[in-house]
Amino acid sequence: MKSSDERIDEELRKALRERFDNFERLPDPTLREKIFKGLGGGTSIVQTGLVASLLLLITLTATVYLVSLSVEKKNEMAAGVKQVAQEFSRALAATNDSEVQKDRQDADRLVGKLENGDDNANPAQQEASPKSAPTDDNGDVVRTRGEQIRGARVTRVAVKPYKVKRADVIKIVDMVKANPAFGSVWIRDEDISPTDRAFLESELEKIFSAGPSANSDSINQNNSKELEGPTLADQDIGVLDHRPMALPQYNWQPDSLVTPAQPQKRYEYLFKEHWGIIVGLTPLRTFQILTVRPGNGVVYQNFVLPAKISAETVGYKFSAGVERKGFQLLLNYGQFKQSYRYEIATSEFVVGPGLSGNYEVVRKGIPQQENSTVRLVGMAVKKHVVRRSYFLRDYFGDVGAEFSRDLTSKKNLVWVNAGFGKELFAGNNVVMTVGPYFEYSLSKLRNPDNPFKIQPYQIGLSVGLRYIKK
Amino acid sequence: MTFFRSKRYSSLADLVRACQAGDTRAQTAFYERYKSRLLGICLRYAKTKAEAEDIYQEGFIKVFKNITELRNVEVIDAWVKSVVIRTAINYYHRTTKEQQLHSNFDDFQRELDSGDYGKIIAQIDMNVLLNVINTLPDGYRMIINLHLIDGYTHGEIGEMLTISDSTSRSQFLRGRNLLMKRLQEKGITQYEIF
Description:
Helix content of chain A: 25-40%
Largest sheet of chain B: none
Distance between the termini of chain A: 97 Å
Number of helices of chain A: 9
Oligomer: heterodimer
Helix content of chain B: over 70%
Structural class of chain A: alpha+beta
């Protein structure tokens, strides 16, 4: 038999349980944020590792690209310097040869005159010859004098080691006069004496101050002579090929010669006939089309989507795959955030003065928030087309489709995507691609917690690397 | 366009297993399932709404962090509830254990039958009833909640509160009498109003 205390306990227990067994209160939405923040935001080691590896990839790409650029520049400079040095050495050799030849001719002339007893034949040479020189009547003396003349000349060169002499300057001036399309004249300061340099500059100034009109007049006259005839249409167009060369003398690198056929062949060789490996990273800005399904008489109101520029809208996509003949097969991993706020309308209404001064009826609502991350793994097929003609050369276009699966909701999405951009050579076998990228989901993601559907589309900047093994 | 119809946590066990696997979307669904019920429990054990929210937050984090330790996923409801109750007790241990219980019930005269208390509890406004429980001293409030509403025995309560069975019994009796006194007052007030 139960005591009175036990009966009271039973009564209280029964009554309290009836009231509290199904007692519920809706928490403040901010509590949810705090709880999930307290959980650490779900950043796993794998995710951190992935982000770190992507950063490393971008850094490596940038390094390879910058290093290859600087190496190319250095090679070009070295080639230019080498060419100039060769030109100068060739010119110097020619000058020395002519001088030696001239000296020899002078010496022979002197020998002839001495043999004929004409000692005053060349006073300049007499001055140049030392007075203490032996004056025998045989030819040995003459040879000695000739050698001394050459010796004196060598001594003079040692004192004044200018490589470009007045005679060379005169030749250059004549050459420029003869050919007005002649390019720049480059002579180092140590290779020419100041007087010769002043002479050269004044002569060139005279030529150019006389104006291109004088020279061009003569050229025009020549050309007009050549183009004279019954009609212009009857002229042989091949005459254009015989115009004087207007380019400065320069040995173009064979690789940099641009002809319509060669790059196409190179492209085919590199990118069409070989398998390529592709990796890429695309930071994306996500947009969402929100569809609200009817939900058992529940009214949803006051939806707030993230600001246009917000961390809540930023996602990324990492791609890796292979390419052959312009077709790419890629495996993708990406993620973006789903974030929005809304209210579940209640039956309470607030009446108050509005901004216009009139009374307004506002329906009260229970605030709710959706904040989740969509992680997608997918497979994409793309057609990659690169333009190789002169107009928009090395610009590419991509069109493709992707099938991806949301790892959290286990739902599938089908995307179409497009992109374009520029291909930059980042190494011998490596091409870097940079350009805007757009993808649009044909499917809608259904949220398990509420009757909403999200249709995402994304815009981003794609950065990729393609490696083709020769 | 959906090519394969995805399964949406067809059972509670599926949802729990997904949470154990660290699926954030499952955690969201789990939270949505339990959020209102657990806040109701916290409001009973806490003295104020702010304290209840602190316990609620701490309790949920513990649930998510320890859910992997749950072997039998079918008892998830009871497990979640026990985690939150233990969080409330820990909160009580940390913050209000030193509070002295000086209530004197010598002057308490029971004026109503045992059945009348049940009627008062059934008819009284929920917020008023909650306020009656909240304003009980911490020790009494804990034991009333644990023993009368959540069905723990005095042995279990003694373990949870690190007190002896007899202490639990005596404190329960005092707490119950205080509750009845408050209910009696509220009941009379209510009758007077109506």
